[in-house]
Amino acid sequence: MAYDSIFRADLFAGQTIIVTGGGSGIGRCTAHELAALGAHVLLVGRKADKLKSVAAEIAEDGGKADWATCDIREEEAVTHLVSELIRKHGPIHGLVNNAGGQYPSPLSSINQKGFETVMRTNLVGGFLMAREVFNQSMSKHGGAIVNMLADMWGGMPGMGHSGAARSGMDNLTKTAAFEWGYAGVRVNAVAPGWIASSGMDTYEGAFKAVIPTLREHVPLKRIGTESEVSAAIVFLLSPAAAFVSGSTLRIDGAASLGGRAWPIHKATNSVSYNGFHRAYLPDVLRPEVLKDKE
Ligand SMILES: CCCCCCC/C=C/C(=O)SCCNC(=O)CCNC(=O)[C@H](O)C(C)(C)COP(=O)(O)OP(=O)(O)OC[C@H]1O[C@@H](n2cnc3c(N)ncnc32)[C@H](O)[C@@H]1OP(=O)(O)O
Ligand SMILES: NC(=O)C1=CN([C@@H]2O[C@H](COP(=O)(O)OP(=O)(O)OC[C@H]3O[C@@H](n4cnc5c(N)ncnc54)[C@H](OP(=O)(O)O)[C@@H]3O)[C@@H](O)[C@H]2O)C=CC1
């Protein structure tokens, strides 16, 4: 018998897939993966030079990619972007709602504009992209959406604005999966933990300094790679996940299993324990608190 596996090199042949934030990091890597598997990839971001160069890389590898600039926080711009992409390239089969980011800051120092900027980047923008892609295309022929979250379920010092946005996006993922299932549209999310990406490289100061120690607080003892997140996104977009909708897949080396467990881990496995709260939290945000306790 010739077994016909779902996993084939042309998994996405004939599909057009938008990747927001496709000009760098995880978005760039995902765009490469999808194009290598036959998709026509549409890269979206604010900076044309980055998008253009990723599209050229993909073309050099024999893949198909186009790009368009858009600030996903602007409703009119998103509506226009999606209609132009459909006019030029036809129906949209997939959306990777990856664009996002934040600046590390304790809640007490975040002003309203900064909070709203991060909420609009990571929640409002993702909502607008998903709504427009659904209304203008997927409602007519189905499709798959993958939203980008971040593993901040237990609260994440320095990321209060972003954590609030990502939790909102988690809920929106489930509601969209519920409301749009009738049209054959699947909506899922990925929640990466610490990932070595070009985005992480942009962080400065105390936050940057702590990055090399983060692996000690991950049960798998390392931080993740861009391609490990892309692989999960590709799975969720693919026919291999045809009955998966409304799910959030954590890609974090088990880091989200919880700070509460680390003292037990310390007691039972002192070799791999490295002091979660002492090494991470106060160093990053409130060195004075750490000093007081020493
Ligand atoms: C166990 C595992 C846990 C998982 C943890 C997850 C870790 C996540 C990692 C990542 O996400 S990696 C990388 C993602 N990429 C980035 O974060 C990119 C870098 N960040 C940015 O570009 C910005 O932060 C942005 C908000 C995403 C975009 O900013 P934008 O350019 O649109 O806004 P600005 O005009 O610069 O600022 C507007 C407004 O926002 C406030 N603000 C912005 N930056 C800062 C800052 N560094 N410090 C304090 N406040 C800031 C401020 O109010 C700005 O207004 P003005 O002051 O400029 O008037
Ligand atoms: N690296 C990590 O450890 C983790 C990352 N994440 C999330 O994964 C996603 C990708 O991150 P990563 O690749 O690491 O970082 P990058 O900073 O490289 O990627 C973020 C991308 O989002 C785009 N972007 C940001 N704001 C907007 C906007 N308003 N409109 C359109 N595009 C925008 C940027 O493009 P441009 O500058 O052209 O606008 C950029 O290409 C982000 O949402 C990030 O927060 C989540 C958990 C962990």
UniProtKB/TrEMBL annotation:
<keyword id="KW-0597">Phosphoprotein</keyword>
<keyword id="KW-0275">Fatty acid biosynthesis</keyword>
<dbReference type="InterPro" id="IPR002347">
    <property type="entry name" value="SDR_fam"/>
</dbReference>
<feature type="domain" description="Ketoreductase">
    <location>
        <begin position="15"/>
        <end position="197"/>
    </location>
</feature>
<dbReference type="Pfam" id="PF13561">
    <property type="entry name" value="adh_short_C2"/>
</dbReference>
<dbReference type="GO" id="GO:0006633">
    <property type="term" value="P:fatty acid biosynthetic process"/>
</dbReference>
<keyword id="KW-0576">Peroxisome</keyword>
<protein>
    <recommendedName>
        <fullName>Peroxisomal trans-2-enoyl-CoA reductase</fullName>
        <ecNumber>1.3.1.38</ecNumber>
    </recommendedName>
</protein>
<dbReference type="InterPro" id="IPR052388">
    <property type="entry name" value="Peroxisomal_t2-enoyl-CoA_red"/>
</dbReference>
<dbReference type="InterPro" id="IPR036291">
    <property type="entry name" value="NAD(P)-bd_dom_sf"/>
</dbReference>
<keyword id="KW-0443">Lipid metabolism</keyword>
<comment type="similarity">
    <text>Belongs to the short-chain dehydrogenases/reductases (SDR) family.</text>
</comment>
<comment type="pathway">
    <text>Lipid metabolism.</text>
</comment>
<dbReference type="InterPro" id="IPR057326">
    <property type="entry name" value="KR_dom"/>
</dbReference>
<comment type="function">
    <text>Participates in chain elongation of fatty acids. Catalyzes the reduction of trans-2-enoyl-CoAs of varying chain lengths from 6:1 to 16:1, having maximum activity with 10:1 CoA. Has no 2,4-dienoyl-CoA reductase activity.</text>
</comment>
<comment type="subunit">
    <text>Interacts with PEX5, probably required to target it into peroxisomes.</text>
</comment>
<keyword id="KW-0521">NADP</keyword>
<keyword id="KW-0560">Oxidoreductase</keyword>
<keyword id="KW-0444">Lipid biosynthesis</keyword>
<keyword id="KW-0276">Fatty acid metabolism</keyword>
<dbReference type="GO" id="GO:0019166">
    <property type="term" value="F:trans-2-enoyl-CoA reductase (NADPH) activity"/>
</dbReference>
